[in-house]
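Quick start: what a row looks like.
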Amino acid sequence: MLRFTILLSAAFAILAPLVPLSAQMATITVLDGPDSTVISRHIYGHFAEHLGRSIYGGFYVGEGNDSIANVDGLRSDVIEALRRLQIPNLRWPGGCFADTYHWRDGVGPRDERPTMVNTNWGGVTEDNSFGTHNFLQLCDLLDTEPYLAANIGSGTVQELADWVQYVNYPGTSPMSDDRRRNGRAEPWGVRYWGVGNEAWGCGGNMRVEYYADLYRRYATYMSGAGLDGGLYRVAAGATDGDYHWTEVLMRDVPHHLMQGISLHHYSVIDWSGKGPAVGFDESQYMTTMQRSWAMEEMVTKHSAVMDVYDPAKKVGLIVDEWGGWYDVEPGTNPGFLYQQNTMRDAMIAGMNLNIFNNHADRVHMANLAQAVNVLQAVILTEGNQLVLTPTYHVMEMYKVHQDATRVPIRVESPEYAHGGETLPAISASASRATDGTLHVSVVNIDYAKAHMVTITLPQNYVRVSGRVLRSERMQDYNGFGEPGRIEPE
């Protein structure tokens, strides 16, 4: 069987029996050559930081809350929605927050936990009522793997070694005994660990040469004892096109200590003026698409650097922060990074997922920033209300690629042009499921123009089906008053 996932721009808002005269032709050729690369389900990961209303009010509403359905304070509606996405992993507690977070503050009796000030995000007081046990219970309820981001900015080697032992060691030890006293008999078996976050910035403003040595020290004392397959340790990698950072890590860190290197890239118009999330014009839209399409170049070039030192591609490129970043919604705390989510964000999501799928030989994991109420969220909440964003629907439509075999394709696309700038209008990726179904996902980022797409297949199929996500305007979104405005058809 053949199935299509299609993201379309405004010109497709009204289906017509004939393609508009303005349409241009694109061709996608599905190639018949062998490709054993599996698109890891972990490319479809998510991110939950102690930032704004991501944790408090998003994932966690407190135990004993009678107004919002919950399991031990964890929102039932959010859990149900994320389970439908089959999210493979969830990253926590940051982000920039990770390098200020001390995990012991979030375990034990709640009335004995110290508070702290969240200096990165809004200057609010963090009461540590949501900690390691809550997060790992959340992951159990989501049937997803936890990805813990460790503090090496203000923390110590011993603190991280103790956290690893606390959550993973099954035998008798000081940390596992503490875990049992705090109500958890069996270890959770956390495999994925980020060793710091954005060491070049909020994680310590370090030089990469210094961080490489620091990483070697921390990683050495992270024990995988009691965990089948050992730990998967992710070094804090580059921002955007800093290829020197990647080269130093690949050259100076022994690969048995480092299973992945992170990359952070946001689709930002300009860091000094990000522009509105909803009231953008076509010029702002074009710039956002350019920033998003830059992911293709960055993944390609960082992969080329890694290939020199790791031709077998054993070390993964982990894009654990990506997505659109705009000015916050008017009237909200600037440090909470709350923004609405439009069809523009659906385009960012589809384009980037196509890039990751097509580079799945090196991209082993990615984490959309962020899951709830922050940046390019898949879910927005307000009190007991919940909205699924256009980005949510893209992630749901694309989940068919999780752990499927990549199928090589060739795309010949017309240009999307505006203001003297051009980009390929059409992007795509394809995979084959274990039952033989071929899935082809196609995105048209053109702001207002239709494009006829011809897809050439290597064999005949007896059944063809597809789903389309579309709306009349790129600025359209699902609001609390109209939560079902944009849904797949």
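That is the whole record. The mean pLDDT is 94. The two ends are 19 Å apart (CA to CA).
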